Amino acid sequence: MKQIVSQMRRCVEDYRMIQAGDRIAVGLSGGKDSVVTLCALAKLREFYPQPFTLEAITVDMTGGETDFTPLADLCRGLEVPFHLVTTHIFEIIFDHRREKNPCSLCAKMRRGALHEAMAQRGLTKVALGHHREDAVETFFMSLFYEGRLSCFQPVTYLDRTGITQIRPLLYSTEGQTRSAVARNHLPVVKNPCPADGATKRQETKELIQALSQRYPKLKEYAFSAMQRLPLPEWGVLPREEE
What we know:
Layout: H1 2-14, E1 23-27, H2 32-44, E2 53-60, H3 69-78, E3 82-86, H4 89-96, H5 103-120, E4 125-127, H6 132-146, E5 155-158, E6 163-166, H7 174-184, H8 200-214, H9 218-228
Parallel strand pairs: 1-2, 1-4, 2-3, 4-6
Antiparallel strand pairs: 5-6
Helix pairs in contact: 1-2, 2-7, 6-8, 6-9
């Protein structure tokens, strides 16, 4: 976790993700990446020169059928306010609409529920738990399925909602987040999505893993290339003078 916090601070500074007085919501899905993002930000909060506060928001897509008590307990221990938003997203997508390709609609509905909860609390900045592999996979998915060089941005301002998305975990790897969860005995709530593991992202992940057997630095080089091209908003910003 110490290494992840160090990487997070560098990422935050490279892209000027946090300003003094920010009230940051953490999108706490219960997966390992969002849990590690919350814990690392809570640690960073203790010494970062730009003071900020945290709140955690969990969107329950199962209509109350999932137990998120472990997340509430974790937030209590970190002294981070925890908010649970109960929705019926899964019921709408899988039972009523019976979507054959549910991921896009699900993401849109989850994002809408999260942003609404933020608006109710006057929060305008949200930290998402995307790590380095997520960025590399998104880059290759855009190439394979859309024929363009693209990826989400480290910092994204959504003008329709006035919300700024930040991704402070981008300099850490999936292996590091997995190890941090195991070493620190952090709670993880299993994703109950019926489509989990059967998506285009999973196919891309498996392809990259296979290629990495032959080209061990593939993910590292791809991530570096994304910063050097750079993709829109991926260029590292010059450091501000102290």
